[in-house]
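#structure-requests
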Amino acid sequence: MRLVVVALLALTTACRYGFDPLEGAHADADAGDDAPASGRVDVTIAGAGAVVGIGLACVDQCGVDATAPVTLTAVANEGWSFASFSPPCGAGATCVAAPGSTIVATFTPTPITANTVFISSTSPPITGGVAALDAFCQTRATAAGLAQTFVAFVSSSTVNAKDRLAGSRGWVRVDGLPFLDQPTDLGSATLPRGVVLDEAGGTYPNFVMTGSDRMGVATSQTCMDWTSTAGAVDGVSASYASYYATGFASSTCAGSPRVLCVGTGRTVAVELAPAPFPVGRYVFVTTQPFTIGGGVAAADAQCAAEAASNGLPGAYRAILASTTQSASDHVGGFAGVWRRPDGIVVARAGLDHSPLDAAPHLDPTRAVLPNQAGFFGATSATGLGTMAATCADWTSTTTGPPIVVQSNSMFMLGLTAISSAMCGGSAFHLMCAQLP
């Protein structure tokens, strides 16, 4: 994106809940609370988007002291569109604001024209075959006001789930965030998020049955072609992204699993790699595993080194709890907007919010590290760790087992797990956060 400046600006800037990649921006929690002073341009954001300019970048409220007109550019988040700037700005996503202006930038949800995908909010009957599962999906969709033809994303001995999508293209979740473009994307690293949401927008992070592998191809575990509650069934953990967003899990047919429902009949291209969002703190998983022994300081040093060697701006620390400090306090809090090294927004409401908008499973080179566990050390973002859970504050390989998080989970900080390995046998990576 090219930003144009009409004239020189004074560099006193205030932003809220955003990281400014441009020089001259400084955090100020009081920005926008007072009436704009003469010579100041104040901006308020309505909806999910950002406004950027020289010395200014924000997603909530911000402002800049100016001695001449300021050029503002609006950038929408995924699933949203820029609607308008308030007067005196004209039409379009670029506004030249005079000193003393108060500008509102409005973003609205993008109307869904692609196929919709959701997890059923209740468990379907399993013994009626594929046709009964299709009917169940259609009933759930109709009740939620989704006007489209839906089928169950399931395989059987006569059809693969991926082939049930033939002739259609482009799938988004019920919140409008992109999920899948082409059926050939199934099982690939291009999927930034899991389905997570049911037809009413509720969240569900657990097992969903498909009778398929991650490519959408039938396995031997299909509840006997959806006619029996005996035996096992393959499927997906709904919280996962990338390779495992549509496969790589299993459960029992008698466990009342839910089903993935997909709309069909529409052919709309869905962008899975949008232009980088310009505001937010970066979060990534380290390329190399962390060697326990040097404590939190060593972890911080690894995060900082990997960020610097790959051109990420700012200062970084490891997202680690210790016995004396929570992970949140260690990285300066989790509030605000977060983004991955590729610029996709991970969270608009804080990194500790569940579910996230996208999985933070990229390393600083922008490579996907799927299903990679990262050291964490506590059961919550704000909690302290124990000596065992933190490997003795990350100094001992003989304690444990440690508490870890999954980098490709949409509930990363909300679904902590105790590792099955002791600290000395765990080649785990680190999750790293840019400091505010």
